[in-house]
Amino acid sequence: MRIIADAFDLPPQLLGVERDVNRSTAAEMNDQAFRQALVPTARLLAEHLTRDAISKKLGWNDLEFVFSDAEVGNEMEEAQIQDILLRNGVLTVNEVRRMRGLPDL
Question: CA 78, CA 11: separation in Å to the nearest integer?
Answer without folding.
Answer: 26
